[in-house]
Amino acid sequence: MIVDPPRTGLDDKLLDTILSYVPEKMVYVSCNVSTLARDLVKLVKVYDLQYIQSVDMFPHTARTEAVVKLVKKIKNQLH
To answer: Which residues bind S-adenosyl-L-methionine (predicted)?
Structure first.
């Protein structure tokens, strides 16, 4: 699954749906690290954060995108 939410991050309904179905892998593309951090607090309960990379999509500005790869945790690792 790939998500690329607006600056407000994932809405509660979508986040609840993701946490209910827990796809094996997920890529989260974010333009707001604050809402990314907020969403990751919930997502890391069922996902391992495997990779995070900042990408400068808008040269000569302070804006960057963050790309995060999440992989479903093995059942005995769930919190």
So the answer is: 4
